[in-house]
Design goal:
Layout (H helix, E strand, L loop, with lengths): L9 H13 L5 E8 L4 E8 L7 H18 L6 E6 L20 E8 L2 E12 L3 E7 L6 E7 L3 E6 L6
Parallel strand pairs: 2-3
Antiparallel strand pairs: 1-2, 4-5, 4-8, 5-6, 6-7
């Protein structure tokens, strides 16, 4: 592993190391969160392009990462390792997460012309450089499709819809 720059946080170092360790496998790494405490907690979030992440996958990767992290000694002191899917409260962070969410409601925070803009609607397609979101027009009568470049997205979250 290459040495990290001084300004890199422990969390960023661990995330980069986990990305390197996990490589291109599915499920893939979407985030790492290090929480202080006694013991500290390391949360590793995984997602899959094709299906939900299973408990068996999380358990297997947890065992692998635990052994590897112990050998690499990246975290000072004891810690509890938690490997999980990201859950609905976390934003999508990897373009590979988008395709399986086509047809779901989402909220997209963007920057357009140096202004913060939020769109809410149905994720209808994922293109090479953008997503398409079907939103209700300002007059509320028609649907229009907005093309939002990945480079303009600050955050995108899936909105859970519960059916009774």
């Amino acid at each position: 592993m290459q040495p990290m720059m001084q300004s890199t946080t422990t969390e960023q170092t661990i995330e980069a190391a986990c990305r390197e360790y996990l490589g291109e496998r599915d499920p893939f790494l979407v985030g790492v969160e290090l929480k202080k405490g006694n013991p500290g907690q390391l949360w590793v979030f995984l997602d899959s392009e094709y299906a939900d992440v299973t408990i068996e996958q999380c358990s297997r990767i947890s065992r692998e990462l635990s052994e590897w992290l112990d050998r690499e000694d990246l975290i000072d002191g004891g810690f509890r390792l938690n490997v999980s899917s990201p859950g609905l409260d976390r934003p999508l962070t990897d373009v590979r997460q988008y395709a399986k969410n086509i047809g779901r409601q989402c909220r997209v925070s963007t920057t357009e012309n140096e202004k913060d803009v939020i769109y809410q609607g149905e994720l209808t397609d994922v293109l090479e450089d953008a997503v398409l979101i079907s939103v209700t027009s300002k007059k509320g009568r028609t649907m229009e499709t907005k093309k939002i470049l990945f480079s303009d997205i600050r955050e995108i979250k899936i909105i859970p819809v519960f059916h009774s």
